[in-house]
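Hi everyone,

Forwarding the result from last night's run.
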Amino acid sequence: MAQPLTILIIDDSPEDRQAYRRYLLQDREHSYTILEEESGEGALALCRQFQPDGILLDFLLPDLDGLEFMAELKQQTQGAMPVVIMLTGYGNEVVAVQAMKSGVQDYLVKGQTTAERLRSTIHSAIKNAQLRQELQRSEERFRTSVENMLDCFGIYSAIRNETAEIVDFQVDYVNAAACEFNRMSQEEQQSKSLCKILLNFRESGLFNECCQVVETGKPLAKESLTYTSFNSKQQLTKAVDIRITKMGDGFVASWRDVTEKKQAEQRLQESQRFIERIAETTPGILYVYDLLEARNIYLNGQVNKLLGYTPQQIQDMGAEFLINLMHPDDLARSPVIDTRFDTVKDGDILENEYRMRHANGEWRWFCSRDTVFTRNADGSPHQIIGTTFDITERKQVEEKLRLSNERFQLAAAAVNCLIYDWDIERNTVDRTEGLTRILGYSLEETQATHQWWREQTHPEDRELLGNYFRAMSANQNHYAVEYRTLHKDQQYRYVLDQGVIKRNAKGQPVRAVGSTTDISDRKHAEVALRQSEERYRYLSDAMPQLVWICNASGEYEHVNQRWCEFTGQPIKEALGFGWTKVLHPEDIQPAIQAWVESVRTGELYEHEMRYRRFDGIYRWHLARGLPIKDEQGRVMKWFGTSTDIDDRKQLEAERNLLLQLEQTARAEAEAANRTKDEFVAMVSHDLRSPLNAILGWAKILRTRQLDSDNMNRALETIESNAKSQAKLLEDLLDMSRIIRGKLQLEFSQVNLGAIIGVAIETVYPSANAKNISLESTLDRSIPAISADINRLLQVLGNILSNAIKFTPPGGRVEVRLSTCSKSTSPDSALSTPDGLNAPLSLTALIQVSDTGIGISPELLPHVFERYHQGHSTHKGGLGLGLAIARHLVELHGGTIQATSPGVGQGATFTVKLPLSAKNLTGV
């Protein structure tokens, strides 16, 4: 009888279900397991549970129709559906077509269905499904075989013109080996023209030969065909063995790349010494053993390296070779060399491991791999060829692994725990000798089942343990559970059971490996600890400090009444990590870090932090916690207090503030004193230099020995240095007036273009002397502004003089005058008059740009400060010019700023003056 079938009948009519059951049970060819369900949802649940071979489906169900059921079944089974035959009382062809499209294998009309027809329909549908599955598996095997072939394989169809002449071939399929051979992917070849892929296909003559195969049906076979292929990527020259056979209106081709073989043959033909070199360079011993002569007739030089003998010495030993050198134990268990090859076929390899004595007396492990090399006329083996390799190191590693396993067994016996391996499917449990130490039973006194262990479990813990293992089996791979189990002395012991779960492909647990440890002592210590904590609680409520007890993880398990009174927290809210809710946000992370360190070291926890009082005010506290440890030194709990130190902290803060203020004042005074000293030195230098020149030329003039040219030169020098000195004194006076607020301006209507022109003419000689290009772009349409003409000339002269001073010969200085309505970016050094926050609506913009030495980003914010030299190279001056210029511009209601890309990249100074009827700052 054929294999039993499981059939699910889905019909809300009990009479119809009864009839179908009767029809099936009358079947003599098959036996059936019949499931029945009257609703679609119930049937889907049965399909998940039993996976039936076939389904008889009524089209109209109370909750779903047949098409809806098929859609949900397809989704539930992810396409791997059982055979479904639909039954309906309506012979509607449209419904039949829809049902077949949904995956139904056949369609029967109620009232017209006989027992024979029902059985034959089920047999046919199941058989067809099996055939389709077999066909699919066959196609998968074919594709897998082709894809894993080492040989290249392709299928091609002919492309014909209107006269039925073959003009090309289309690539229908190529396997992975063909893609690697052509160095092209399947996407680059699939459905493409073969002549376009292989550009040399026609010229090589292979195209015409393929056409002959298709037209005549005569296969084509070529050995070692040398073929040069030009594709779109590169030129490939290969040697191939190719077979081409007609298939339909096309051909299939298989070819093997024998390029390496041909090259190897060519190399072998070049020199016989090539073989000798290979033999001598192989890491193992290569030998040929003659079974008739019972001796080695060839050995390579590696025998000397691995065994310490020359090839000739081994050959001279003859048949005594193995007796002399092989270990007696290995010689006794190894088969006789000339008999173990009697039944060996050509190509079969015999492998053997044994020990050989080195010439130095040391025993070394070897692994030989032998095969028949030549045979006698009667077919019996004549000579064998083999290689042997020194595997001593591998054997040593294996020995270490064996010893490691022994150590594990010893360790398992040494630790105070039971190690077990539970085969869940077979319900068998392997346990170590630790069972005796845990429960007092020997392995012989127990049953190797999980049931035996469950019977020893305390009755109150059995349900807990069962529920835990069911939950663990469903969704966990690791477990740890504590419970009580009965010792042989009839006393219950607390144990910790922990391990891992191994699952099958369906996710079902099949194996559990774990350990069971006696934790009775720890449990008793925990009970004693809880009793001690009760005493602590009574004591803590009487203390004025905030008292707390927490576990090893930092979760509060107890706080005293004073804690609740201070923080306003109820006890339930304070427990766990509720203490973090009253901790100042800035103190949470430092407190946790200090806690982690104390947990790591097991030492006293001491940290200052702020707690929030019930009225929202934070007060400083000193938290101190003592660890409570078990006998093994592990921290079980922490007992701590938090003492209010807020008053002390405030005194410390006031003292630190006073100290900081004193240090700041001292630093500012020292900086001011240094600045004064530097300024006095600079003033002395800059006043002394022109005086020295004046005095020097005055002495020379007094001799009255100068001609007219030198006389003029002396007077010019005296005049120039006198002016320089006057300029320095004027800068000092201006800065003094600025500091005292006595600097006054004389306003009049000033044409900016004219003023800039005068300033340019003033500095032109200096620029010309350095061959500096002085350029200007001035908007002459800008109206006159109210300004002090002399002070404005002073500002422009200072900026232009600096630009020329710090621009090397051959450089360029450019002056631009324009207007703008927006303030500049705050990214540059910017001076703004006090009290001006709103941007000016219309502003005159004066920009002086140079190609000079530039200003570093570090110096840029300080260029307008008094006594500041913006460059390391001293160019003269007191560092007051830009500070004065800034103040003068601000008195005009404007701003001045400096920008520079960096050292060596020039600088730009920008002056902005308001184009309003009145200045923002007056006399």
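The first helix runs from residue 14 to 25.

Cheers,
N.
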